[in-house]
Each structure stands twice: as structure tokens, then as C-alpha cells.
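Milestone 3.1: sequence recovery, worked example.
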């Protein structure tokens, strides 16, 4: 080994510092960055711009510490693809070089747990030998602080470490109540405990037939990716068996179904699907993904993963319940606001618009309509609220499906109206609507119509949605009844004003013709009529005396002419 005395002295000094700080009980805080700073100062004169230590997790390298100037592309984490010098160092188990860097594997036995990277463009064999020696010492120091079991500690230590990871997953996932970071930390604990390349946590929505990735580690950009629950035999097995499913070769598997092309497009080689169960019901899964051929799992690893998935399911369910409570509290606040807004106007179309906007904020919907019965109960007017002033469509009352709700005064949740032969449901189904919630609009025990909320997805609504929409329907019924009473009162006032004007006009006239003309004029204005006429008709008894009346008129006219 061609290392000069000065180099040996420096190596000895650095090794002593590493032992004092990393293996102290407890380890000195920030020992790695302190050590890297000393190392950088020693080699900065040898054209070394920066030094970095990265932990290898699956097929990603994650920075643990650095000193000097580290390129921005390597400052946090990066995948270990075929072009990466880190991947070359992992494969060869010795130093690998690139145009601007040297990579030294950090090993525990035969396992590579990290890398020491220096950023330089110069080649120096003595420096490389010295840093390889330091990289060997960094392995035990890093593992001591990560509390990752060494290969020689045996099966018992490995099981203890798995239990520690289970506890960590349980503790960290509880913070999901405040955000997604808890789930991401839980996914990381699975990766670190089982040494898998990638973990995803998915929640399932069987009503929509999709599963959604809500957390992953490392970050491969899969967050929000959706898989199909229908058309994938592995999902049917998961529902029936409630046990982990191992797919060693994704390309040859016949169970991935409609999701296979997408998963292969991600580069997936194999995976393990662990069901998350609540009261014998699958609510999601934890997926252990492998992007390299030949990855296998021991029974102990599967057992530990199942335990973590079970704990995740409980805490995830608690988080969902917590979110539901917050959502319902928000809904109650909105309903209180709706009560204030909807009673602030007596215009029917403005009431419709307010109810439509607030309902869409409360419940996911694709179409909202209101049906009102006519005054004679013979017809039903259906207002589809798709414009500020919707034009009603009329149906004979007895032919409509909505009349059943009006008669019974009972709200209903319908999974699919598309198969109905009733004209009102057919009209709504023509817009692509399937699921529906029908709320009776009742005032004083009397139904005036229905409030209808619809969605294009069959089976979209549940009983809990019905409870919310009933409150909206109550507010709508009150607002519409108030508007009707206001209109009646306003009409009564107009009639009284007209009568007063007629009386005043008649009293101010001294002749019959003037009184009749004034009355007709007032009524024409009130009715907005262009023409009006008065027809006087005598009673039959009066008609018999017509000749006598005529004689008296002629007599009076004759007397006046004589004068």
C-alpha cells in the first residue's frame, strides 16, 4: 500500500474522531457532518470540491451528510439507474469513477449500505486507497446510528429490528391525522425494515372501482396514481382470501389484468400485495415493489409486513373517520350559511341558484333539479337547474316517479334510475344521470314538490348523504313557501290598491260614462291590457219594462225641445 506517513497520520486522526463521536453513548449529534468537514479540509487541497455520504435504500441513494460543494443534482436523492457510478460501485463492491466524481462503497460484510462520494476531476491512487479504508470504517458507524442489524447478529436480532419498525410504523402513521407526512414516514419504515426497493400505500374505493396511491417511499412520482379494482384477478383474490399475495414475476403474471401494462411501464419486476383490513373488510393495501429480478421474501419478512399493514389499516381508518368528522362539521356550517342566504330573497330562481351552489359545495353531484306540483295537483313541473332561469318541463302527476315521494313524504336513495320507464326519470337519465337522492319538500305536513340530487356514477350516494340533503331540502321548502306567501301578500296589496284607486276615481266622476271609462282605464293598467270594454246587461224583469222606459225618455226629450 503506497500511502505516505502524513497520509497515515491523517487517517489515524480521522479514525479516532470517527470512533469517539459515532460510537459514543449516545452518539454525538451531527457526528457525520463533523467528520465529513474534517475529511474535506484534509483533501480540499487535492482539488476535491465536495464530499457526500448517501445511504442506499432500494434503488435510491439518499443523502445523509455532506461537506464542501455538492452538485445540485445530487443534493437530496437520486435513482440508481444503469448510468449512475453509484450503481457501478454497488455492483462491483469497489470504487467506481465518473468524469467529476469518485464513489467508494460503504459495506457491512457483503452488504453495501451506502456510498462515500467525493467530487473531483483529478485521479489520485493514494487518495483513493485512503478513502476506501475510511469507507470501510464508516459502515459500522452508520449502522450503529441507524440501528440497522448487522448480518452477523443473526435471525433473532433481525426479528427484533422488524418489531422496532412495526412500532415505528404505528407511531408515525398516527400523525396522518394532520397530513400525509405520517404515511410517507410509515412507508419509509417498511422500506428500511424489509430492505425493499419501494413501498406504496393505497386506499380502495370499491364504489368507483379504483385504488389510489396515497403514500410512497422513495418518491417515484406514483402519488395519486390510480389502479383498477375491476378486471384484475389479483384484486378478486385479495377480497376473497384476505392474505398477502406474492407476484414474483410481473411480466409473466396473469393476475394483474388491466393494470399490468401500467405497472410494467413503471419498470416493476415483482411485488407483494398486503391487504389492509378493518372488520374483515379490505380498505386498501401496502405494496412492496421490486424493480430487480430475483427478489424473494422470507416468511418472517412477510409476517412483519402483515403486522405493519394491520397497524396502518387501523390508523388509516381512524384518520378517515377524523376527516369525516371535520367534513361533517364543515357541512353543518355551510347548512347554517344556506339558511341565512336562501331566506334573504323571495325570487324563486335566485333561491334555486343559491341551493344549487351550496349543494354542490356539500355533496358531489352532477345535476340538481327541483320538482313542484301545480295548484290543482294534476301536473308536476320539473326545473333542471342548469341555467339561471330554467324552463320547467311539465308531466302529468300520475305518470311521474317523483309523485311517489310526494305522496309518501319519505326520502329515497336510488342507485340507478337509468332503467326507469317513468318520463321524469327518463328525462334525467338522458343527461347521463344514474344515482339519485330524492328529498320531499314538505311544509306543514303537505308536500309541495321534491329536491333531487343526481350523479352519473351508479350507487354513488349513501345514507349519510341523505341526512345532509334532507336538511338542505327543509331549507329549500321553507324558502319556497316564504316566496309563495310573499307573492300572495304582494298580490293582495295590489288588489287593494286597485280597489282604492277605482273607488276614488268613481267618486270623483259625476256621470255614468265617466265612471265607467275611469274604471276600465284603471283595470286595464292593472292587468297591462291594451283594450277593454264594459258591457251592461239588464235583468229579465227589467227587459219587460223597456217600452215604458223608452216612453219616459222620449217624453223628457220632447219637453226639453219645446222649451
Amino acid at each position: 500500500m503506497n500511502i505516505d506517513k502524513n497520509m497515515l497520520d491523517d487517517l489515524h486522526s480521522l479514525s479516532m474522531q470517527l470512533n469517539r463521536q459515532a460510537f459514543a453513548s449516545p452518539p454525538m449529534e451531527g457526528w457525520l457532518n463533523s467528520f465529513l468537514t474534517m475529511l474535506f479540509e484534509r483533501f480540499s487541497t487535492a482539488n476535491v470540491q465536495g464530499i457526500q455520504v448517501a445511504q442506499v435504500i432500494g434503488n435510491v441513494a439518499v443523502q445523509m451528510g455532506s461537506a464542501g460543494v455538492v452538485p445540485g443534482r445530487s443534493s437530496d436523492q437520486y435513482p440508481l439507474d444503469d448510468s449512475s457510478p453509484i450503481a457501478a460501485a454497488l455492483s462491483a463492491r469497489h470504487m467506481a469513477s465518473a468524469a467529476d466524481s469518485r464513489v467508494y462503497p460503504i459495506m457491512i460484510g457483503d452488504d453495501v449500505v451506502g456510498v462515500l462520494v467525493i467530487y473531483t476531476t483529478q485521479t489520485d491512487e493514494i487518495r483513493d486507497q485512503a478513502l476506501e479504508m475510511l469507507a470501510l470504517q464508516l459502515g459500522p458507524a452508520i449502522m450503529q446510528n441507524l440501528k440497522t442489524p448487522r448480518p452477523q447478529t443473526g435471525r433473532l436480532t433481525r426479528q427484533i429490528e422488524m418489531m422496532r419498525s412495526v412500532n415505528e410504523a404505528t407511531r408515525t402513521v398516527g400523525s396522518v391525522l394532520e397530513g400525509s407526512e405520517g404515511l410517507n414516514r410509515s412507508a419509509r419504515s417498511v422500506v428500511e425494515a424489509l430492505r425493499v426497493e419501494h413501498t406504496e400505500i393505497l386506499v380502495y374505493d370499491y364504489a368507483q372501482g379504483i385504488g389510489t396511491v396515497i403514500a410512497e417511499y422513495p418518491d417515484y412520482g406514483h402519488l395519486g396514481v390510480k389502479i383498477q379494482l375491476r378486471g384484475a384477478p389479483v384484486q378478486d383474490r385479495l377480497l376473497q382470501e384476505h392474505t398477502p399475495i406474492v407476484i414474483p414475476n410481473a411480466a409473466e403474471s396473469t393476475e394483474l389484468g388491466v393494470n399490468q401494462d401500467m405497472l410494467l411501464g413503471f419498470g416493476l419486476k415483482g411485488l407483494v400485495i398486503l391487504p389492509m383490513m378493518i372488520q374483515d373488510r379490505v380498505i386498501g393495501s401496502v405494496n412492496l415493489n421490486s424493480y430487480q429480478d430475483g427478489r424473494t421474501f422470507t416468511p418472517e419478512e412477510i409476517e412483519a409486513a402483515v403486522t405493519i399493514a394491520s397497524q396502518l389499516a387501523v390508523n388509516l381508518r381512524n384518520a378517515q373517520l377524523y376527516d369525516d368528522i371535520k367534513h361533517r362539521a364543515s357541512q353543518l356550517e355551510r347548512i347554517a350559511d344556506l339558511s341565512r342566504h336562501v331566506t334573504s330573497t323571495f325570487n324563486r330562481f335566485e333561491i334555486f341558484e343559491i341551493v344549487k351552489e351550496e349543494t354542490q359545495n356539500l355533496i358531489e353531484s352532477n345535476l340538481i333539479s327541483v320538482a313542484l306540483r301545480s295548484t290543482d295537483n294534476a301536473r308536476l313541473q320539473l326545473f333542471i337547474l342548469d341555467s339561471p332561469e330554467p324552463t320547467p318541463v311539465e308531466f302529468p302527476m300520475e305518470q311521474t316517479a317523483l309523485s311517489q315521494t310526494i305522496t309518501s313524504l319519505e326520502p329515497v336513495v336510488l342507485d340507478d334510475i337509468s332503467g326507469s320507464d317513468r318520463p321524469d326519470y327518463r328525462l334525467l337519465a338522458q343527461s347521463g344521470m344514474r344515482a339519485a337522492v330524492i328529498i320531499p319538500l314538505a311544509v306543514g305536513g303537505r308536500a309541495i314538490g321534491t329536491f333531487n340530487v343526481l350523479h352519473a356514477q351508479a350507487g354513488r350516494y349513501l345514507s349519510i348523504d341523505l341526512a345532509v340533503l334532507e336538511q338542505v331540502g327543509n331549507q329549500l321548502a321553507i324558502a319556497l313557501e316564504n316566496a309563495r306567501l310573499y307573492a300572495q301578500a304582494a298580490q293582495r296589496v295590489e288588489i287593494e290598491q286597485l280597489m282604492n284607486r277605482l273607488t276614488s276615481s268613481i267618486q270623483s266622476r259625476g256621470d255614468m260614462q265617466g265612471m265607467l271609462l275611469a274604471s276600465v282605464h284603471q283595470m286595464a293598467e292593472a292587468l297591462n291590457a291594451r283594450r277593454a270594454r264594459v258591457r251592461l246587461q239588464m235583468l229579465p224583469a227589467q227587459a219587460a219594462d223597456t217600452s215604458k222606459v223608452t216612453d219616459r225618455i222620449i217624453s223628457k226629450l220632447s219637453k226639453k225641445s219645446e222649451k
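The first strand starts at residue 48 and ends at 57. Residues 148-154, 173-178 have pLDDT under 50 and may be disordered.
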